[in-house]
Amino acid sequence: MTKQDLKELWIGELLQVISSGRVGTYEGISKNGKIRIKSDGKIYLASLKNTQHHTAPTDKNQLPLEPIKKYKEEKTFNNTLDLHMEKLSPDLVHANPIQILNYQIKTCETYLKQAIKRRRASVTIIHGKGKGQLKNEVIHLLKSFSEVKFYIEKNNGGAQEVLFQYI
């Protein structure tokens, strides 16, 4: 990486330490000028020359995740979607956080499309309380559907009840 690349880095971007192959998220610059990379819950320091942007999966648990297909295949439709990974896909709980978030959003989008296709009056999406990143992404997604009349917070902020209107 160059100093110019460093200026354009965002917290949370995936980086790889070239010498070790370790992949993690960019967490800023340390006091001694090294790049801070968070991987497996630990912070590692690396020189600018020893880091690069990372886009390829490093193992089978970090393969690109696709939204679950069960909403297309099931004849019955559950009016509640729980986006906790333990419920969606327990075998992916330890995947890369960015890929988990993308998986959750794609699953939510697929679910909403199926709810609309089935002309549901309302559904509940459980995103959890956490740090609010998934909640914000769900709300952003809801705003992109013209069929969503409005949504209201439920469960002390851990879910959204979505009401649809069909024209």
SSE diagram, text form:
Blueprint (H helix, E strand, L loop, with lengths): L2 H5 L6 E4 L5 E7 L5 E5 L2 E5 L4 E3 L16 H4 L6 E3 L2 H4 L8 H21 L4 E5 L6 H11 L4 E7 L4 E6 L3
Parallel strand pairs: 6-7
Antiparallel strand pairs: 1-2, 1-5, 2-3, 3-4, 7-9, 8-9
Helix pairs in contact: 4-5
Describe the protein in words.
The chain has 167 residues and is α+β, with helices and mostly antiparallel strands. It starts with a helix and ends with a strand. 22% of the residues are buried. Helix content is 27%, strand content 27%. The chain folds into 2 domains: 3-53, Roll (SH3 type barrels); 60-164, Ribosomal Protein S8, Chain: A, domain 1. The strands form 2 sheets. The protein has a 5-stranded antiparallel beta sheet with strand order 4-3-2-1-5, with no helix packed on it. β3 (35-39) and β4 form a beta hairpin. The longest helix is centred in the middle third of the chain and has 21 residues, at 97-117. It is elongated, with a radius of gyration of 19 Å. Residues 56-64 and 68-73 have low confidence and may be disordered.
Detail the poorly predicted runs: 56-64, 68-73
Question: Whole-number radius of gyration?
Answer: 19 Å
Shape descriptor reads elongated
Percent of sequence in beta strands: 25-35%
Count of extended strands? 9
The helix/strand series, from N terminus to C terminus, equals HEEEEEHEHHEHEE
Number of domains: 2
Alpha-carbon distance between the two ends: 52 Å
* Spatial strand sequence of the major β-sheet: 4-3-2-1-5
Under the CATH scheme, the architecture of the largest domain is 2-Layer Sandwich
Specify the number of helices.
5
Mean pLDDT, all residues: 84
Structural class, from secondary structure content? Answer: alpha+beta
Helix content: 25-40%
CATH class of the largest domain: Alpha Beta
CATH topology of the largest domain: Ribosomal Protein S8, Chain: A, domain 1
